[in-house]
Amino acid sequence: MENKNNTLILLQQSLNVAGLATHLAEPTEAVPVYQLRVLLESKVAGEEVVCEIMLLPELPEPAVLQLFVPFPFFVEFERIGELARFLHMVNNAMPLHGFGMMESSREVYFRQLLPFRQDALDHQLVIESFFVFDASIGLFVETIRQLAVSEITFDQATEELQRLLHQLNARTD
Q1: 50-80: per-residue pLDDT in tens?
Q2: What values do phi and psi take at 39, rounded to 5?
Q3: Which residue in 39, 69, 79, 127 has its CB near the most CB atoms, within 10 A?
Q4: Which one, of 90, 125, 128, lies nearest residue 110 by Cα?
Q5: Could you give the dihedral angle defined by the CA atoms of residues 49, 37, 106 and 137, in that order, rounded to the nearest 10 degrees?
Q6: Do the Cβ atoms of 75 and 61 come closer than 8 Å?
Q7: What percent of the chain is helix, strand and coil (3-state, nearest 5)?
């Protein structure tokens, strides 16, 4: 366990050097592992969004670093099917997949798993991955939220996704 805590502490130092605000949270009854909480640049309906980074417990080498971003909204029950389809469309359109939801609790999130050897965590790779998925969240989360809470229809969300992807492709050309 000590080695895992050291991994999070070293990662925290690297993220701080990269200019990110972090906090190492102690284990609780609800979450029995240390969490490195990182404030994202992306916002959802004006609310701050936090990435929870933790080492998944009791896994053999390679260890697995989980980057989990719970969004501050819930999918309305009648929109679960449409949102599931839309999240699949977003994930398929991007090289870095991770948008999802838990149907039973109606929570919507972004999640990445990064396997690594305990003695060889590439902090720069984690930081670069972090910035890429923060940009992905910033690009798509408002449309996801609007669909989840019935502010727009599935067809409107699909049109917005196509517009965003076209805009993204125009920037890379």
Answers
A1: 999 998 876 666 788 899 999 999 999 999 9
A2: -75, 125
A3: 69
A4: 90
A5: 40
A6: no
A7: 45, 30, 25
**What pLDDT score was predicted for residue 1?**
45
Q: Supply the angle between the helices 154-172 and 80-93 in degrees, to the nearest 10.
A: 10
Walk across the sheet containing 35-44 and list its strands.
22-25, 35-44, 47-55, 63-74, 107-116, 99-102
Structure confidence by residue, pLDDT tens digits, 98-152:
999 999 999 999 999 888 776 777 888 888 888 888 888 999 999 999 999 999 9
Average pLDDT over residues 149-173: 90
Please, are residues 44 and 72 in contact by the beta-carbon 8 Å criterion? yes
Place of tokens 């517009």: 163
> Whole-angstrom Cα distance, residue 143 to residue 140?
6
d(C-alpha 109, C-alpha 6), whole Å: 27
Q: How far apart are CA 21 and CA 136, in angstroms?
A: 19
Position 172 scores a pLDDT of: 64
Read off the tokens for 82. Answer: 């449409």
137 and 42 Cβ atoms separated by less than 8 Å: yes
Fill in the amino acid letter for 148.
A
Outline where the chain has alpha helix (H).
2-17, 80-93, 123-148, 154-172
